[in-house]
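Researcher: Quick sanity check before group meeting.
Model: Go ahead. Protein one:
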Amino acid sequence: MTDLELYEEMVRLSRRGEPYTLVTVVANSGSSPRKAGAKMLVRSDGSFLGSVGGGRVENESVNAALAALKDETPRTLDFVLTEENGFACGGSMSVFIEPHGRRPLLVLFGAGHIGRAVAALANGCGFRVVVVDERPDCAVTELLPGADEIICATVADAFAHLHPDKESFVVIATPGHVSDFDAVRGCLATEAGFIGLLGSRRKREALLKTLEEEGFDAAQRTRVVTPVGLDIGAQTPEEIAVSIVGQLISIVRRK
């Protein structure tokens, strides 16, 4: 295994929004099994790539890496590799354990002016952004540099590719009420933790009335946050993006 393979795996996991931990030997002396600079990547399932020495050092490093991933706190482990401490190598070594957290998922329905602004800002704020739009001229990388993934499909078809969970965010800003409401219905059938709909208070009343008539109970209806975004008096697409992404960040930081 080369460092290049390890770095490529870091990039792959980061792009997929999957958490991992990087373990690096930062100091050593004597006949330690690995020298400073040796690295190991530990995935959330405990599998790993690379090595910081094997045996007990590696086992304890993997366990500490998983703990660091859970509490999102870096830490350093010091090993004195003498017989009285249960090692045979002699010498000593220290490893730094650095968790890289999961990027929160934002599914964005609609790649219009506001959708583009939200995608760009959310990506820059650490979200993994998936954009859905059925218009081929809108669902293009050139207009959506902040999107990690673009799905050119109708709202109904897109849900075959989407699996938002309780940690996921959804923002709906399609060109029309019909597709907006379809997206809301689709999201309510998932475990999406946040469902935000762009629109006026009149649109909110129409949506809630429609959902009630269709049999969605009060608990389901309250899952829809509309109008989405903080009330900062936003008017331009960029300002509206700030209000929306600011609201998402406030939720992420409170967890």
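Researcher: Fine. The other one?
Model: Protein two, sequence then structure:
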Amino acid sequence: MENEWLTKEAFWEGCRRNPIDPVLRLLLTSDGTLIRHLESLFLASVKVAIQDQREILIDEEHASRIGIPAGEKGIQRKVWLSAGGGRKVFAVSIFPLSGLKPDFHQEVLLGQKPIGRIIEAQQLPTRRDRLEITRLALPQVAEALGLQPRELFWARRYRLNISDQVSGVIFEAFLPSLFSSSSFSP
């Protein structure tokens, strides 16, 4: 599965041949909010720390995943999600600016809440689709955690449709230590 983006069904088929932690399978394939799952696992609130946030011109790959023309202005946000005493997930979100309502856009710019928490607070109906899962090396993420650059991360990407506003793309990489038996102690 390394460096190959798989559909949910292909991932499950791979899991039948090579068993993978059930919590990992749940986190990678869930269409619920990651924030709530992390809070349930760690019995702690999830904190967000912005690594980088900027306006970008959305490239062809991401525009295609969102379903918009390439080159549209967007906002890209790279964050760490922490719970239970440490970083657990590295996430990147990209949303086209043209579809964001001002209150949602303002909350994103403030950088104080995870996207999932903003959506929940504003009671915005959402739908996730185009889910893909892989295992890949993320040297810069590994370096930020003091891990070897070739460390492999389980990751997923999907399109997040916010009902009456906009679609964006989300990438989430889960720390390898997240799935050790002692990592869920409150």
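Researcher: One line on it for the slide.
Model: The two ends are 31 Å apart (CA to CA).
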